[in-house]
Structure formats: structure tokens, C-alpha cells
Amino acid sequence: MLQTLKRVVPLVGGPALIFALSFCRTTGDGSQLRGADTNKDTVAQAALDALQRNCSRCHGPTGNNSGGINYITDLDQLVSKGKVRRGTDTDQRKSRILVRILSQDNPMPPLTDDNNQPVPRPSQSDINAIVAWVLADSPNLGNGKGVASTFIHNADIEALVQKDLQAVVQENAANTVFKRYLTVSHLANSGATPEALATFQLNLSRLINQLSWGKEVQVPLAIDANKTIFRIDLRNYFWNGAKWNQLEANYPYHNPTESDALKNIRQLTGTPEPIIRADYFMNVAIRPPLYYSMLTPPGASAFPGSAAELEKFLNVDVGEDLRETTVGARGRQAWRAGIPENESGVSKNNRMIERHSMQFGAYWKSYDFGPPVTPDKNLNDCPLGPVSLQPQNVFSCDASRGFNPDGGEILWNLPNGLQGYMLINAQGNRLDEASTAIVFDNSSAAHNFAGSVPGAIVAGLSCMACHTEGMVLAKDRMLNRVMSPNSPYSAQVKAEVQNLYTTQADLDQAFAADRKTFVTALAKTGASTSSPDSLLALVQAFEQNVNLALAAAELGQTADNFKKMQTQLPNDLQLALIDLFDGGALTRPQFEGLFPRVATAIAAIGAAPPVGLPVSTAAFTSWRFVPLSATGSACSDSICVNNVGLRVNGVVQSIPQGTPPTGTIGGVGVTAKSSSSRAGDHGVEKAFVTAPSGDCWGPIENSLAAGNTNSNFLQFDFAAPVAVTGIEFAGNTGNPDCEVASFRVDASSDGTNFSPIIDSQKNGLAPQPGVVQSFTWAP
Fold first, then answer.
1. For residues 203 and 538, what is the distance between their CA atoms, to the nearest angstrom?
2. DSSP readout, 98-133?
3. How far apart, in whole angstroms, are the C-alpha atoms of residue 608 and residue 742?
4. Which span out of 41-50, 218-227, 317-326 was modeled with the highest average pLDDT?
5. Sheet with 419-425, side-by-side order of all strands
6. What residues have CB less than 8 Å from 436, skipping those under 6 apart?
7. pLDDT given at position 28
8. What is the pLDDT of residues 378-406, one digit of tens each?
9. Res. 40 pLDDT band, cuts 50 70 90
10. Ramachandran region of residue 702, left (φ > 0), alpha (ψ -120 to 50) or beta?
11. Which residues have a Cβ under 8 Å from the Cβ of 468 and sit 6 or more positions away?
């Protein structure tokens, strides 16, 4: 935060929260609500987009509840709570929404924000969209909140990651230990719009690359179509297993259920937490202690503990540069600017900033001063220094002209052109937060980051919030002041000040060059300077209270499904979560504290998505139909299954009998096999034709009574990955006995490690004996 222009980035309670995660209008089970009229849906969506752009920063779900409205993006509530009036055209035009938006005297959004800064006005097209929606026949049309996405289950995430790692194995199996995955799937499940998720992706790329010592910007790779799961390679950022271990050591969102896929993923990556939530990563990695840990230089065991250690690593010799600039023959090696009190956006007193050239670009350092303002803390009295460099004979003037800083901030270019940050105290030792008596971040005071002193400048977090475009222009006041003909300074002091302090033209040129370096690198991450506050908004959004929808999504459940589990949870958890289930919320620390126990309890309940939810549209090479129980009393050795077909591309297809059965489904070649050891008319080759009345062909055996349900299956091995979204089968048609009473469908990318996709018991599917069964679980 080497700045002089005051930055205003209020997030909580302020109008700059432009990126507040936008939530979709979904049913309780996560499916998208649809209106009967597509044109009306279009009207509603256009109005919703306009309200999101212009009003959600204060009145959205993560706004400041200004005027008691935090539901501006919920079209249904706007009507039910009277903000939009129905009835005659005259009634509709009295709708509070329209009155305020169209008002010339008291408009919404207001003309200025809390800091008296102008607020962008809604475009005419946005105003027209809102007016058209209010005057429509049914204002609560179609998608009340946004664009819904298919619910992404933990099994889906694990299956996709496993599939991605298998591709890595094919290239070079030794590389899997360097792969890690960051996911925002839970945000998609809770209703974040594609635009919000895209913003998240760009800022994730920016943050990771600002924690990198790699020479090039490396953008995390999305491995799924929805772009909610991102793969990184630790080597790209000069990270190692030890850095990742620090990140996962206190990870509160551990998955207590280890599927075959997750077990395989952990084995391939060699780490217990190969998949971590991206919003958690951003929240902890952007501030100490993890900020410094993740930015530990290559070859070092820890991040430098002082400015001297950092300068040694970067090969920056501050004293030598100042000496050469003051008296040497090499020309300018350092650039200085003196900033008076009240002209810096963060320093409470006067400050000096100083630039040095180094191998990756620039190394900037500030000298800041706290109270009391004694002569050695006032640049007017002491324009040279610091005194700590006097023994090096940097300055020829006496010590009375040397200043003594109380702290400082360091900013330097990383090898990829972005910036690293460090805070130091009077002795030059590293700090996590700067003293608010010396420097003060007005924006941090506004959003009061968790775990930080209000207004404190936090290493990494506050610095990235300020330096959204790299360097912030500074105006030097010392050079002209000291060189004035009537100034009281000696000729020697004037000579040294003239050498050290920079003309504004030279300073502007240095700022412009350094800014270009940063902005060029930033563009490579995909992030933009056009929405500079979005990174801070994401951090703030994570720290907001957790409501039922978000809690459920983070637990891998829909809100309705989570509600159904309430009475099955242990009594103490029911009490701890009572506010959540009653429509309230938990603080983020409360939720994180409860998460391990709640997740474990859900795993014990055996929770899964309810019927009708889209489950998975991922493609796999192997699929298994796994009967779990049978009807009748004499079925300990077999289950009757006939006429098996799979739904691919919306069509159920089967393959002809054979030894083994082969054919095509969805245009892809497939071969089937069974766990059954029987042959002939009772073997797997007969499982794909309709059985005669009263007969049982194609049994699956291996004794359900033994409880070894995973050993009973029909397996379909495809020549290429296909997405199966349903299954059809029959049993003893005409003589219903020993038929499938419950089943599971598993999938695998390697034919060995399978993960469950659907479970009839957990999903409420109820096979009916004596008839052909048909089940669909995804579009």
C-alpha cells in the first residue's frame, strides 16, 4: 500500500460490494424453477440482471440490509412484501421499486455513496427492463434469482478428479503427486451465477499467482464443464508438499467419507486433502500466517523474518543504492518521494517511499512514523535517513538530519511480474499486521476482516486490496520544499536531498513502468483491473453468516434434504443448528466448528440426494448395476435380472445376448460382464433379453445374505466414456419373486475404482416387482 491517493473499498455496508454472490431461484431439491412462458422468463431474467447490477450491493443477500431489504434479487419476495404492487396499471406504477428508480429527487441507487463518491447510474436499458417486469402480467415469473445449475455431488467431484488424475497417469504417473484441486462446486450448488463463478475463477488465478515464485503466470485448469473444479501443479508456483501440508493441517471441511474414488485420489497425490474448497483457500492464503508460508522463497525453510533477509534473497542492497545515488558515479540507484501528513491514504503521519531496481523489476519500501511526532519522525526536520544507515556513511550530514521510522511496508515484483508484500516494524522485523497508530486502512475498518484489528493493514490481504493495478501514484513534496531558496537546510543537505529525491516527472515514469509490469502480468491471470474490489468481496463473502442453503451446499446436500435430516442428527447438534433450521444463520466460525461433526453425522445417516434431483452427467468408461436387496424369502443365492438397458443421450438402449454380450449403446461399443459364475441360460449372456413369463434368466448371485453387496453386479465396459442417466430392467415377469428390491449404480474411469452415482434406498427409488423398472436421475 505505497499510496497517496485514498482508496475507498467499503464492502460490508458499502456500495462497492458489486460482486455479492448471486443466488438462483431454485426449488428446495435444487432443481430450477421454470415459468410456463419462456418470453415471461426472459422479462423476469432481464429485470433480475438489472437489479443485480444496480441494487444488490446494498440490498442483496450479502449486502447491508439497507432499508430492511436484503432480498432485491428475489422477485417473489419483492411482490409478497409489497415492494412491487399488482392490480391496475396505476397501482403497478405506484410500486416502490419503480418510484425510487425513476425519482429525480430521491433516486435509487443514491447519487453518492457513504463516502460522498458518485454512484454509477442505472443504464436506460436496465431501467426499461425493471419497468417492463413490474408492468408484466405476473411479476414473479420464471427464475426468481438466477440461472440454476445441476447439483454437483461429492461423488461427482471425486469422479471427475479421479478421471483427471487417470489422464495424468497416462502421460506420466510420477506427476500425480504434484497435482492438487480447488473447487467452488458448493457455491454453484448454493446458487452462485455463472458470472459470479467466473469472477471467482479469475480472482483465484490472481491470488495463486501472487503466491508464486514461478517465472510465468500459470492459470489453474478447470477440469469440468461448469468450471467449478480447478487443477493446479505445485511445481508451477514453486510450492512443495510442505506448503500444501500447512494449508491442509487446519482444514475444517474434511470429507469424513472415503469412497473408493477418494481413496484412489489420495493415493495418487500422496496427500490426505487433495481437494480443497477454493473459497477457504483464498480466505486463509491471502493473509498471515499462510500468506507468508505460501510465499516462502525457493530453497528457504521459511519466509524471511526481516527486511534485511528479504533484501538479501532479492539481492537488493538498500545502503549501497542510497550511497551510489548520493555520492557515487553509477547514477541513480534509488528513487525517493516524501509525502506529508494527510496526503497518504494509509499513513497517519508523513511517510517516505523509496524504489530500488532488482532482478524481477522493482523493490519499493516505505518509512512510516507513529506518534509522538518528534523531530526524528518528521521529514521536514529530518529529510535524510534512516539513522540506522548512518554507520555505513550513506549520508554526510550529521545525525540530527536523520529520521527514525516506526515501521514500513515492502512491495516487490515477483518473477512473474505480480507483487509480493511484507510489513515490518521499527527494527525491520516482519509483521502480520501493522500498528493502527502508524498506518490505518479505512477499507479494512469498513469490512472488519475476521481475526484482524479494525482498520489494521494486514499483510497480503490489505496490500492486494490497495494495489489492484500495481503501483499507486505518489506526489513528492520534499524536493521542492528543501530546494526552495528560502529553506533553512544547509547546502550539504540540499545536495543530498536533490540526489535522493526524485523529480515528479521521473517518479511518474517509474510508477508507470512498474504499473505496466504488474498490469501485464495481471492480464495473464485472466483477472481485470475493471473490477478491482472483487477479490476483497470474495473474502468478505466467505466471512458472512452461513444460512441453511449455503450450509447444506457446503455439506453436499440440498436445503430440503438437509432439513429432512434434522431429526436424525444427534440431539446436541440439533440444538446447535436450531437457528439455522429456523431460518436464521450461523457465523462462519460457528459453522466451521460444527462442520466435522455434522458431516460425520450425515455420513452415518447415509444421506443422498432425493428423487428427481439431477445426479450426474459425467461420462465414464465403466458402469455397474449393483443390486443391494431382493424380494421374497428364498433369494439368498441370486437375484433375477432381465432386459437390462441403459439411458444414454435420452434414449434407453440394450445390447443383444452373447458370450459375452456386446453391442453399442449411445453409438459407443460396449461389452458386459457379471459377477455371476453361472453359465448358459442362467448366465450373464441372457441378462439382456426379456424373460418368458414366470422364468428367471440372467441371475446375479454371490449370496446377498452374506452382506457382500458390492460383489453382485452387472458391469458395462465402454470403448469410450459415456454419460449414463438412467437404467431399465425387469425380473420374474409374471411371477414376482427374487427381484431387485433396492440397487445402486456405480461408475469408474478405470474399470476398477468405482464411485456411487445413484442409490435407490437413499434416493427414495422404489422398484416394483413384476413389471419393467425404469429410473432416470439426470437430464
1. 9
2. HHHHH-SSS-SS-SB-TTSPBPPPPPHHHHHHHHHH
3. 15
4. 218-227
5. 334-339, 351-358, 361-368, 407-413, 419-425, 430-431
6. 453, 454, 455, 456
7. 31
8. 888 888 878 777 645 455 445 456 788 99
9. very low
10. left
11. 529, 532, 533, 535
Q: CB-based contacts of 768: which residues, under 8 Å, 6+ apart?
A: none
What is the distance between the alpha carbons of residues 142 and 43, in angstroms, rounded to a whole number?
9
Q: What are the cell numbers at 695?
A: 422364468
On the question of pLDDT at 625 being above 60, the answer is yes
**Tens-place pLDDT, residues 528-558:** 665 555 677 778 778 888 999 899 999 988 8
Average pLDDT value for the chain: 77
Assess contact for 717 and 691: CB atoms under 8 A.
no
Contact between residue 472 and residue 466 where contact means Cβ atoms under 8 Å apart: yes
How far CA 676 is from CA of 40, 672, 698, 703, 706, in Å, comes to 55, 12, 9, 10, 15
Confidence of residue 26 (pLDDT cuts 50, 70, 90): very low
Q: Are 442 and 451 in contact (CB under 8 A)?
A: no
CB within 8 Å of 383: residues ≥ 6 apart? 338, 401, 403, 478, 482, 489, 493, 497, 501
Question: Which DSSP string corresponds to 585-635?
Answer: EE-HHHHHHHHHHHHHHHHHHT--PPTTS------EEEEEEEEEEESSSS-
- For 602, residues 6+ apart whose C-beta sits below 8 A from its C-beta are 555, 556, 557, 565
pLDDT at 628: 80
Scan for cell 426472459, then name that residue.
42
What are the φ and ψ backbone dihedral angles of 231, each rounded to 5 degrees? -100, 135
CA atoms 577, 582, 588, 589: torsion sign = negative
Q: What is the 3-state secondary structure (H, E, C) of 310-362?
A: HHHHHCCCHHHHHHHHHHCCCCCCEEEEEECCCCCCCECCCEEEEEEEECCEE
Laid out side by side, the sheet with 662-665 consists of 662-665, 668-674, 714-722, 620-630, 740-748, 755-759
**Residues 156 and 616 sit within 8 Å (Cβ to Cβ):** yes
**How far apart are the C-alpha atoms of 712 and 625, rounded to whole Å?**
8
Q: Is the pLDDT of residue 643 over 80?
A: no
Least confident of 150-154, 168-172, 359-363, 610-614: 610-614
pLDDT in tens, 674-717: 776 555 444 454 455 444 444 444 444 433 433 444 456 788 99
Cβ-based neighbours of 105, under 8 Å, separated by 6 or more: none
Helical (H) or strand (E) element with 413: strand 407-413
Q: Could you give the CA distance from residue 455 to residue 442 in angstroms, rounded to a whole number?
A: 6
Q: What is the pLDDT of residue 7?
A: 26
The helix (run of H) or strand (run of E) holding residue 201 is: helix 194-209
Q: Residue 662 belongs to what H/E stretch?
A: strand 662-665
User: Is the pTM above the cut of 0.85?
Assistant: no
Residue 98 CA from chain centroid, whole number: 35
Q: Are 476 and 507 in contact (CB under 8 A)?
A: yes
- The answer to whether 459 and 495 have CB atoms below 8 angstroms apart is no
- Position 714 scores a pLDDT of 82
Give me the residues paired with residue 422 across strands: 410
C-alpha cell at 456: 489494521
Out of 492-501, 546-555, 765-774, which region has the weakest mean confidence (pLDDT)?
765-774
- DSSP, collapsed to helix, strand or coil, labels residue 198 as helix
Per the listing, cell 464443464 goes with 225
- Look at 244-248, 557-561, 612-616 and tell me which has the smallest mean pLDDT: 612-616
Looking at per-residue confidence, does 745 or 767 come out higher?
A: 745
275 burial (CB, 10 Å; 0-12 / 13-18 / 19+) is buried
